[in-house]
Amino acid sequence: MGTCPSFPNLSAKLFITMPMQSVLKPDDTFEMLIDQTVVSKGSLLEDMVPPVNPPREIEDPSEKKPDDWDERPKIPDPNAVKPDDWESGALGKYRTQTILKIFTRSR
Length: 107
Known about the structure:
Blueprint: H1 12-17, E1 20-24, E2 29-34, E3 37-43, H2 93-105
Antiparallel strand pairs: 1-2, 2-3
Organism: Limosa lapponica baueri
Pfam family, one: Calreticulin
Family: Belongs to the calreticulin family.
């Protein structure tokens, strides 16, 4: 008779027919029970592979910015030109009036 790879001390037949239960707790810990006996327990964040909640970004100590990296928040485009019909106001006169009409009608 074979054994279960996760629990080598249990025979495969017993493992299949025994009641199993997973208990997840609010403190991010878990318990695995077979036939109401705890066979495994630990933290969901530290003891699971892969982790249930992996880090947002994996730190790479060898990572660095290139020497010619530009730190400016906006980089001007020398080829950019405004369209001929560009409105100098934030929304333009027509758009501002239209938005005001919409907001006054909804009240």
